[in-house]
Amino acid sequence: xxxxxxxxxxxxxxxxxxxxxxxxxxxxxxxxxxxxxxxxxxxxxxxxxxxxxxxxxxxxxxxxxxxxxxxxxxxxxxxxxxxxxxxxxxxxxxxxxxxxxxxxxxxxxxxxxxxxxxxxxxxxxxxxxxxxxxxxxxxxxxxxxxxxxxxxxxxxxxxxxxxxxxxxxxxxxxxxxxxxxxxxxxxxxxxxxxxxxxxxxxxxxxxxxxxxxxxxxxxxxxxxxxxxxxxxxxxxxxxxxxxxxxxxxxxxxxxxxxxxxxxxxxxxxxxxxxxxxxxxxxxxxxxxxxxxxxxxxxxxxxxxxxxxxxxxxxxxxxxxxxxxxxxxxxxxxxxxxxxxxxxxxxxxxxxxxxxxxxxxxxxxxxxxxxxxxxxxxxxxxxxxxxxxxxxxxxxxxxxxxxxxxxxxxxxxxxxxxxxxxxxxxxxxxxxxxxxxxxxxxxxxxxxxxxxxxxxxxxxxxxxxxxxxxxxxxxxxxxxxxxxxxxxxxxxxxxxxxxxxxxxxxxxxxxxxxxxxxxxxxxxxxxxxxxxxxxxxxxxxxxxxxxxxxxxxxxxxxxxxxxxxxxxxxxxxxxxxxxxxxxxxxxxxxxxxxxxxxxxxxxxxxxxxxxxxxxxxxxxxxxxxxxxxxxxxxxxxxxxxxxxxxxxxxxxxxxxxxxxxxxxxxxxxxxxxxxxxxxxxxxxxxxxxxxxxxxxxxxxxxxxxxxxxxxxxxxxxxxxxxxxxxxxxxxxxxxxxxxxxxxxxxxxxxxxxxxxxxxxxxxxxxxxxxxxxxxxxxxxxxxxxxxxxxxxxxxxxxxxxxxxxxxxxxxxxxxxxxxxxxxxxxxxxxxxxxxxxxxxxxxxxxxxxxxxxxxxxxxxxxxxxxxxxxxxxxxxxxxxxxxxxxxxxxxxxxxxxxxxxxxxxxxxxxxxxxxxxxxxxxxxxxxxxxxxxxxxxxxxxxxxxxxxxxxxxxxxxx
Length: 957
Known about the structure:
An 8-stranded mixed β-sheet has the order 2-1-3-4-5-13-12-11, with helices on both faces. An 8-stranded mixed β-sheet has the order 7-6-8-9-10-14-15-16. It is elongated, with a radius of gyration of 58 Å. Strand 6, helix 7 and strand 7 form a beta-alpha-beta unit. It is 46% helix and 15% strand.
């Protein structure tokens, strides 16, 4: 029981002291809360607490670029961390701004301060390339990424400064876009006009390389200092006006560009014929300056990166405008420029990279301790900077300007748009893409939209203009000997070369003032060789050379030549000698011996065939044997001159004679042509046919003075002591005719001019050594060179060049043939006429066979009787009688009339004569029959005396 009492007493004590008990409970609760808060703090220290990543920003807030970029970076971080997707991120990027102004020293000092005192993990925003050059080295030393959205590092390559990252499209791709645009319009020369600062140190080589790749030259570069006054700019513009090129690529700051274009407009260089292309950066001048820039830059074409106009971008521009207007109430900007969008994407990328780097507290500790003597040497590094650098290079996301992706420490370039300033507006006229190059469409190949060029014209400028108040100073060689080519008289050039040049100049669609100056000493002597004259063009002492200037490889090293306007090549000029054959038997040479014999044989053969066929029916082929032999030869050989008078009465004979006369005609004409060739072509032959013969004999060689011939002749192994120079065609003639030189070696145009006067005594021989003929010399890259070349082609095609050459050579090109090309005549052979002889022989034989067949057919009765008697002597006798006895039925009217005049009342027919022959033959051969008995033959004779002739019946009547 006492225990219960004690317990009861204890339970009651709290009741008796209630205020004190509640105080104890409150103390316990407070202690628990403290413990809980401590546990949360420890948990946060273990990795759940947000970690700040310090990033330094170096900008010049006195410039609109600095202000716009800073506003965009602030908005980027606000938008990034307000995004629900990033609410769980453990890192927070914190920006530390340093307003340094344009000084590179101030920027470097600010960088050291940020790295040493703030211990930033990255630095963003050196605006200029000069500032970036120092900060890039600082980044390399400390392994801290230096990120720029508006500057390049000109002094070193990206591999040499791996901690310098550029988050804007690089100038190399911009150079390719500009080169592609220039190639589109086929401009062959461009002058870059740039600000003389570090920002263009890398741009100029990139541009020159891209232009060279498309075949465009950069012969001159105009640099203007950023602090240049009006007088300096005006002097630079005057130097541009003194050049032929009218295509300019401009890259400079906005302030300098506005001043430059204002003065260029006052100097008349914003007019028709000029082309101005602005690089990216300068195209933002219209957003910054507005109307003043548009007024002085009408017709300018520019390139700038293409940014797709998305809803996100429109929303951002609206919010940026509201924010910026509050901070800068008097601004003229209506939206963030492209560099501001790059700054926005840079800040966004840093926030992403900071989270992806998975930074720990230990990463922020200094990696080493440095007790150097300077602030720069005492700067410590940390692993956090290196992790942030690596993560930043791998960051990819869809940004305001497109896909954000770093490649080779630069933002990957994509597309550009081409803009044209027209009035108070900028219009997009096309695009540039890596795949399509310059096109009117992003996805397909299309023509550019119409561009309005300076001067308000849509006609594409040709890319060059004649310099203001420029008169071309034309050098004319001193050429006394060959004045028909070029000659200087009374301040004017005359001759073939000058006439061709002036024809081309006058045909150009624009006026080109020219002034001739002779390359002489005023005392009748030249000031030097043609090589020296050409070199004067290289030294800009002459604007061109017009004359008989041969296009040579060594000369083309210093000047550009037009296309040649004369025949090209070098040949030899030699005398010709008379090699006429004057023997008594020259007339036999046209035909070879076998042809003479063959032709004679066919003459006799044809005469015999004609005599055989005509003998029975034509009294002109009858008579004593000697007379008949004479008729055969006389008839056959008289056909050679178509003087035969014998009448042909048999159709078969006529066929054979017609074919034979055709053969004789061809044979006669061939003989005449061959004989003419022998007596004319072969009579003139060159005394020398090749230089080897001249070298072997040790003869002297002449050439034109002040020409390139000595070098050529030395290469051809001719001793220099054997070379003699001459100055005129008359000296050529004297030297060749007197034997002072064996040959003259010169260019074909000179030799043709010489032969126009001395055609019949000389000729060109030997191989043609190839050279390019005469051309006009202009300075390297002169735009007149292709213009004059096209004019030369036009003269050649419309016939004007041929007319000028006829005047030069006097038409001797066709009157004086090249004798070396004449072929030596050779005798005609039997093989050449074998076909004709076969035709006439076959025709004659066929006529003979047909005649014999017809004759035998008509006498078949008598032949049958003779054969039946079995005596071949009788058959031969009948055949002999048939051939020798005349065929009175077929006789001519003259024969009939002769018979009438002789008073012969009875004319026996061939058949009656045959019967008599048979009768007589039988009386001598048939010994079994008495002399008085009639024979069958006689009976036939008595019974069939034959019909009387028509003449006889007529006389009876």
